[in-house]
Amino acid sequence: MKYIYKITLVVFTTLLLANCNKSTSGKSRLTGLSFNDPKNGNYIRNSSFDGQDAPLGMVSIEGGSFTMGQVQDDVMFDWNTTPKKIHVRSFFMDEAEVTNSEYFLYVQYMKDVFSPSEEKYRHIYSSVLPDTLVWRKSLGNTDILTENYFRHPAYADYPVVGVTWLQANEYCKWRTNAVNLKKLIDKGHIENIFENDSIRNFFDTDVFLVDDSKLFEGDTTIYKRGVRTRNSRSNAGAFEGRKITQADGVLQQRFRLPTEAEWEFAAKAIVENREYNNIRGRKKYAWNGKYTRAKSKRFRGDQLANFKQGKGQYSGLPGWSSDGSDIPIRIKSYPPNAFGLYDMSGNVAEWVADVYRPIIDNEANDFNYFRGNLFTKKFINQEGKVVIIGDEAAVEYDTLPNGTIIPRQLPGTIKYVPITRDDATFRTNFSKADNANIGDGDLNSTRFYQDDEDRFASRPSMYNSPKRPSRVRDSITGRDVLTNDSKMRRTLISDQTRVYKGGSWADREYWLDPAQRRYLPEYMATNFIGFRCVSDQLGPMSYKKRKARHPSR
Question: Which of 154, 191, 496, 511 is the most exposed place for a label (fewest CB within 10 A)?
Fold first, then answer.
């Protein structure tokens, strides 16, 4: 009887505390005002966030400190990988490169939404197509790859190549919108628009948050329900709840290209050569060890990556293939690294977000380092409304140095413009919109630091890089002709030059080192550069249960 009384008392106390917590969880802890209550202002709070699940196809990368930079001798004498200790935040990363089939889905979607048969959209579809001519060789029989590598099902699970940095960046934006659209459909917030042939199924996350009436050609009946609130009632055919906001945590964080620091950190995967708070030597490859062949009994002698092993040695002898492929191979054909990432060394090199500079100097930010920030803001018209491209603002196009025409921003998206000097007034953390050349190419980093901006603009560029060619209209044919200047150039480095990391099927072993870095103009493509996406992880560095720091004690 005594024990029954104690047990009853414990259960009663637990229920009482639970009810108290339940009754106060929907209120402000400091003011007592209720959240999500129409009778009390309907102020928003979503307290059900228990951590993020890794997006489809991604793995979680727990951040931390590591030494970014070279491990082996600099045989190329680039001197552009000087070791530097930095910290990287936690993030999610694609476990493998974006494949032909995944990119082909993007191409089909863009053709469906922005039909090239419509004059106002005719340049959009062509701007997303990969360059299949990257497979051609003047002295090689490779047209079979030109015709088949991207679209044929035999290569569906091979990494996409022939994609420029600009195209990879646009794919990441589209993926954000596609994932959020699918999520809203699955959760019942909007109807399945793919079954409605009368509506152009374009979706933009930013527009949805700012003014969802601008989507789906203004048809608001597509929205079924929002976030439930107290006393929300369901009326047949009427929108239920309130509109979804960023504060609800419903939408997926944006996808983007990884920064150089994030890519190198993920590739090195120092989690497997860590002992307590120390690193047992720095890693030369994405896997542990100093050789490119497997040591396990079952796979001993097999190559751990797809790379060029010598002159004419792309795969080995017939019947005894060293790495299994003479071109890029199907993703996940080799073991993953300690983070669960495939092909971080070999197969294809990968675009990262950074603008290239020969050095990462000591003044660079040691927290989530990145070069290439362009700070923008939403463009507001005179009426105080956000401007939508194609609605109030005309679609603007750029012509790249290689003659490709691309839209600056897609129709139906919010118009963004660089911040102004007034926006940065009294700021201590940034002073201008474009930070690609800050500390290495801007006014303050040159010997002309005493110039005013107009005089500095007339001086030679620090790197004397190629400028975009001018366009001249041919009076006879009426076509625009690209005209290059005839100046002697010493470098390809510019603010439009991007870093790519990792070795590829066409590279020698030296480039498999994650620390190595190379560069290419953002509008150019090759048959050995692909990409993968990342997404930011919110909240704590890790939601895993912490292990004891001193388990033996």
Answer: 154
Last residue of a domain, one of 435, 451, 474: 435
Put residue 390 in one of left, alpha, beta given phi > 0 → left and psi -120 to 50 → alpha.
left
pLDDT at 248 over 90: no
- Asked whether 99 and 342 are in contact (CB, 8 A), the reply is no
Residue 255, beta-bridge partner list: 535
Nearest CA among 81, 97, 84 for reference residue 513: 81
d(CA 404, CA 212): 32
Q: Give tens-digit pLDDT for 457-486.
A: 788 777 777 666 666 666 666 666 666 666
Please, are residues 346 and 503 in contact by the beta-carbon 8 Å criterion?
Answer: yes
Mean pLDDT of the chain: 85
Average pLDDT over residues 309-327: 84
For residue 237, CA distances in Å to 218, 223, 233, 240, 551 come to 17, 10, 12, 9, 59
Domain count, the chain: 3
Contact assessment for residue 307 and residue 503, using Cβ atoms and an 8 Å cutoff: yes
Query: Is residue 389 helix, strand or coil?
Result: strand
The pair of three-digit structure tokens given for residue 511, joined into one six-digit string: 């480039």
Question: Average pLDDT in the 73-102 region?
Answer: 91
Residue 207 backbone phi and psi in degrees, to 5? -65, -40
Residues 6+ apart with CB under 8 A from 229: 36, 37, 38, 42, 241, 242
Q: Is 222 in a helix, a strand, or coil? A: helix
Written as six digits, the tokens of 394 are 């005309």
Question: Cα–Cα distance between 438 and 449 in angstroms, integer?
Answer: 13
Is residue 407 within 8 A of residue 116, CB to CB? The reply is no
- What pLDDT is stored for residue 1 in this prediction? 54
Mean pLDDT of 16-32: 62
Res. 18: pLDDT tops 90:
no
Q: At what angle do helices 100-113 and 165-186 cross, to 10 degrees?
A: 80
Helices (H), 379-457: 453-457
Residues 37, 140 within the same domain = yes
Single pTM value for the model: 0.89
337-382 pLDDT, tens digit per residue, is 999 999 999 999 999 999 999 887 666 788 999 999 999 999 998 8
Residues 514 and 453 in one domain: no
The parent domain of residue 310 ranges over 33-185+258-358+501-546
Counts for the chain of helices (H) and strands (E), in that order: 8, 20
Query: Which pair of tokens denotes residue 213?
Result: 């009436």
Q: Residue 426 pLDDT more than 60?
A: yes
Backbone torsions φ then ψ of 105, nearest 5 degrees: -60, -45
Judgement on whether residues 161 and 271 belong to the same structural domain of the protein: yes
∠ Cα 335 341 347 (to 5°): 70
Residue 28 DSSP label = -
Distance between the two ends of the chain, CA-based, in angstroms?
Answer: 41
